[in-house]
Design brief:
Elements: H1 2-7, E1 19-23, H2 31-38, E2 44-49, E3 59-63, H3 66-76, E4 80-81, E5 84-85, E6 87-90, H4 93-115, E7 126-129, E8 132-135
Antiparallel strand pairs: 1-3, 1-6, 2-3, 4-5, 7-8
Length: 136
């Protein structure tokens, strides 16, 4: 009880949250092995291990408690698993969505170019002014 009371008065940095993003995992790691590693730091709500070519070697670990997530992040970043050193970060949705938005915008741009028969390389002009290169 005293510990829970003490926690309510602690100010954590704004990037700290319950969701950890883990990189540099062995490709063959299982969810069960992830629970064994991260579960030592507190109750886990969910673990999602990447299984596509783009997400292999990564995982999301969601803790029930923000302080447990912070403790795990502090202790497991750099932890050696099968000869690989883990990179444990706090999940930042704004960064994830910025990348996704940029990819969606590029896909839409490519779709419009295809629709109107515009080849992005065709008719490309390059202007060179000192150290500034403009591609139009």
């Amino acid at each position: 009880m005293a510990l829970a009371q003490k926690r309510t008065h602690v100010r954590l940095p704004p990037e700290v949250n319950r969701i950890l993003y883990v990189r540099n995992l062995p490709y063959k790691i299982t969810g069960e092995e992830m629970y064994d590693i991260f579960g030592k730091y507190g109750a886990i709500r969910q673990i999602k291990v990447g299984n596509t070519p783009e997400t292999r070697g990564t995982a999301f670990v969601v803790f029930e408690d923000i302080f447990d997530a912070k403790n795990a992040c502090d202790h497991l970043s750099g932890f050696n698993v099968c000869g690989r050193y883990l990179v444990v970060l706090y999940y930042q949705s704004n960064k994830a969505f910025k990348k996704m938005d940029a990819e969606k915008k590029q896909a839409e741009l490519d779709r419009v170019k295809t629709k109107y028969g515009i080849n992005p390389e065709e008719g490309k002009k390059e202007y060179n002014s000192g150290n500034v290169h403009l591609h139009i």
